[in-house]
Amino acid sequence: MVLDGGRTMNDVAGTEIDSERVMQVGERIREVRKSKRIRQKVLARMVGISPGALTNFEKGRRRISLDWLHRIAEALDTPVAYFLPDEDDKTRATPGDPRERRLLNAWRELSRADVIRADYLQLMEHLGRAKGLKKRRASS
């Protein structure tokens, strides 16, 4: 991976990054993009690169700079660290559905009053049960 100033990740980390790891980064970009239902053209436009360049990053044909990775991570609302290969972390959690993050942010923005939070929680639980009931009715 090329860093600002033309340095590579090899120069910084002192280890060689093989093409397999470059592919892992690309695969994770694609995985997150698809999980968030974002088309390549849309993501490319969001970060300011060509769709072809994004394709090359995703397929591991081109090494991605940390600058571009940071831009892509921001556009996908995912931590940069998620995309970086880490052999020690085999249980890496996938980023959640963006709607989950919106619900969590709404929870955090609520007044600290326990009554409001209790009502919000009760509403979410009710909606969750109602959705489950619709699925059961449809399958009956």
Layout of helices and strands:
Elements: H1 9-13, H2 19-35, H3 40-47, H4 51-58, H5 66-75, H6 80-83, H7 98-109, H8 114-139
Helix pairs in contact: 3-4, 3-5
Provide the gyration radius in Å.
Answer: 20 Å
Report the CATH C-level class of the largest domain: Mainly Alpha
> Helicity level, as a percent range?
55-70%
Major sheet size, sense and barrel closure: none
The number of E-state strands comes to 0
In the predicted model, the low-confidence regions spanning at least 5 consecutive residues are: 1-16
Task: Give me the CATH architecture of the largest domain, please.
Answer: Orthogonal Bundle
Strand content: under 5%
What is the N-to-C order of secondary-structure elements (H for helix, E for strand)?
A: HHHHHHHH
- The helix tally amounts to 8
Question: Tell me, what's the shape?
Answer: elongated
Describe this structure in words.
The protein has 140 residues and is mainly alpha-helical. 64% of the residues lie in helices and 0% in strands. The chain contains eight helices and no strands. α3 crosses α4 and α3 crosses α5. The longest helix is centred in the last third of the chain and has 26 residues. The termini are far apart. The N terminus is likely disordered.
Keywords, please?
single chain, 140 residues, 434 Repressor (Amino-terminal Domain), 2 domains, 64% helix, elongated, disordered N terminus
Give the structure's gist in a few sentences:
The chain has helices at residues 9-13, 19-35, 40-47, 51-58, 66-75, 80-83, 98-109, 114-139.
